Amino acid sequence: MWTLLQIELYKIFRRPRTYIAFAAITALIAIIQLGLKVDGKSYMEFVMADLNRSFSIEGNLLNGYFVCYVLLNLLLVHVPLLISLIAADMISGEANMGTLRLLLTKPVSRTEFILAKFIAASIYTLILLVWLAVLSLFVSMALFGTDDMFVMKNYYAVQISEDDVFWRYVGAFGFAALAMITVAALGFFLSLFAENSIGPIVTTMSVIVVATILSTMSIPLFEAIKPYLFTTHIVTWKEFFDEKVDVNNEVIKGTLQNPQRIINSVVVLCVHIVGFVAASIWIFKKKDVLS
Amino acid sequence: MHEIIRVTGLTKKFKDLTAVNDLSFSVKQGDVYGFLGQNGAGKSTTIRMLLTLIAPSAGTIELFGKKLQGNKHEILSQVGAVIEKPDVYKYLSAYDNLRLFAKLSGKKIGPAQLMEQLETVGLASRAKDKVKTFSQGMKQRLGIAIALVHDPKMIILDEPTNGLDPHGIADIRNLILRLSRERNKTILVSSHLLTEIEQIATRVLIIDKGKKLVEGTAEELFDPAQTVVELSTLDNAAAARQLAGSQWAIMLQPQREGRVVLKLDRKSIPDLHRYLVQHNVDVLSLQPRHSLEDYFLQLTSGNQHVDAFTD
Questions:
Q1: Residue A284 confidence class, pLDDT cut points 50, 70, 90
Q2: Residue B173 is part of which domain span?
Q3: Are residues B104 and B206 in the same domain?
Q4: In this complex, do B74 and A107 lie within 8 Å of one another by their Cβ atoms?
Q5: B 125-184 residues with CB below 8 A of A?
Q6: What are the residues whose beta carbons fall under 8 Å from the beta carbon of A82, sequence distance 6 or more?
Q7: Looking at beta carbons, which residues of chain A come within 8 Å of B55?
């Protein structure tokens, strides 16, 4: 199993395609950071327009923590596409290249083969998120400095003390990693059914788009299935940036407004991951390799 | 010699199509076993079942005296295979591909052994080059190196000469013969190129439409007393008239594409040549047709199924 995993990681990181995602994330973040650095003041005026009418807010609002939040909001919609480039290619790409049959003539168990490939795809996803974290959080902190973080919610604003932010990002990135591994599991599962990479990649994105639409539409027909769709839970990382308040409406540092929602989302995402991987193993063990 | 492969009643159905139908055969240790059939005859499906890529619908497969089902890991560690065109990772070098597949075999294989293997197939000088720069023949040789890298007892080659030029075909043929004679490997080689099989196989199995037609040694399948010879001269019609009025008349067959055809004992060919020269026939060529090919065409065009006449 360890040998298989080493081989899978070696293959992933020797392929030029792997670095497209890293390059794309780097370019996107650099463009947004440049834009905010050059014209961040007007952006902040626009974002804080409603609050500025009633409150006088001082300090460095456009700080690294805030910029990172903006980046995550924008990028976590696109990262699934980059992840599916690799995950949805894991089996179908081997079938397309003709290497799947050669691999399976070696003394390896099909269950271990699938598990090694999925773990490798998950490690790739984690590394991609670490890269995203380095650029969006640490580089933003270096470029924009640090201060209290202001987050605009639908009906209220949250001010998080500077010394209470970092652990929230650790939690948010951890949660985002789980959400993206769910996307990887979906792409991986779909890659079993095709002998080219394009089909599973497009199908993965289509499933995400359709499920996201179902998750966001307030139509009674879809309300019943919403809690079970993984797309409903992908955005739960934002819960890390909401705090509890006491009876005097004072913020309680180090708290989360709705930890149960995070736990529920973690459970739903884990069930999806286990479900997709178990189904992949079950199908692959019975599959005739005709490629 | 004991059996390395024993296949009994092997059947594979894909919905309504029966790709392999109640196929039984055995391969003994040291055999170069030729597996012949037209395209779509069921050769690749059978080979894929031997390598656990496809699950049989019925029948049993035993390798090295053990049932394949339940002993896959142990059995496959003793088998090397090239299935159709040997596709490898094009973005890796020949050496890296070999190292990667060597790791999967479960044996510890050092850099020196890897280079030695590339040397065996004539790729040592291109070891560090990416496979995307390789010709089809080089990829084929790399595929064979991958099949051999863990020193398996048995080698399965599915259409190993596909897409190769005559030089490449000769290389593969010589390699198979060397592996069999010098390293005592048991080799199962499938092909639709009968001439290739005829030159290397110690035993031959011919299948058609998933069923066994015949199994035996090349000598058993071919009767040398029934060699077909094609004669080409400057004036074929005159040559045919000359032979029709001689002792060779009873051996004359219907002409093929204007050429004179005779069926005779292989040993008589020099006598025929002498007769033609003595009677001033300007011979351009006197060519024995490949016996196995004739036999194969006769079997498959008639679509007759005969029992194995050996064993």
A1: very high
A2: 3-218
A3: yes
A4: yes
A5: 143, 146
A6: A20, A21, A24, A25, A128
A7: 286, 288
Query: How far is it, in rounded angstroms, from Cα A280 to Cα A111?
Result: 9
Q: Give the 3-state secondary structure of residue A227.
A: helix
A11-45 residue pLDDT tens: 888 888 888 889 989 999 999 999 888 888 888 77
**CB-based contact, B88 to chain A, within 8 Å:** yes
Break chain A into its structural domains and give their ranges: 2-286
**Exposure pattern of A184-215 as b/e (b: 16+ CB <10 Å)?**
bbbbbbbbbebbebebbbebbbebbeebbebb
Q: In whole angstroms, what is the distance from residue B170 CA to residue A168 CA?
A: 67
Q: Choose among A15, A101, A108: nearest Cβ to B83.
A: A101
Radius of gyration from C-alpha coordinates of chain A: 21
Closest residue on chain B to A17 (Cα): B91
Query: Is the CB of B105 inside 8 Å of chain A's CB atoms?
Result: yes
Q: In the prediction, which pLDDT does B291 show? A: 57
Distance of CA A44 to the CA centre of its chain: 26
State residue B304's pLDDT score: 45
Q: Which of A236, A72, A77, A58 lies closest to A150 in space, CA to CA?
A: A58
Q: Verify that B194 and B77 share a domain, yes or no.
A: yes
Query: B88 and A106: CB-CB below 8 Å?
Result: no
Does residue B66 contact residue B20 with C-beta atoms inside 8 Å?
Answer: no
pLDDT at B294 (0 to 100): 65
Q: B193 to chain A nearest CA, in Å?
A: 22
**Which residues sit opposite B287 in a β-bridge?**
B230
Sheet-wide strand order for B66-67: B17-28, B3-14, B58-63, B66-67
Q: Are B9 and B61 in contact (CB under 8 A)?
A: no
Over residues A255-263, mean pLDDT: 89
What tokens does B154 get?
């048995």
The pLDDT value given to residue A80: 87
| Strand B227-233 versus strand B283-288 pairing type | antiparallel
- Kindly report the CA angle at A123 between A120 and A125, in degrees rounded to 5? 110
How close B232 gets to chain A, by Cα (Å)? 45
B85: closest chain A residue by CA: A98
**Domain total in chain B:** 2
**Residue of A7, A104, A107 lying closest to B100 (CB–CB):** A7
Residues B236 and B182 in one domain: no
Contact B170, B265 (CB under 8 A): no
pLDDT of residue A124: 92
Q: Does B48 contact chain A (CB < 8 Å)?
A: yes
Say whether A107 and B77 touch across the interface (CB within 8 A). yes
The whole-angstrom distance between A123's CA and the closest CA on chain B is: 20
Verify that B128 and B238 share a domain, yes or no: no
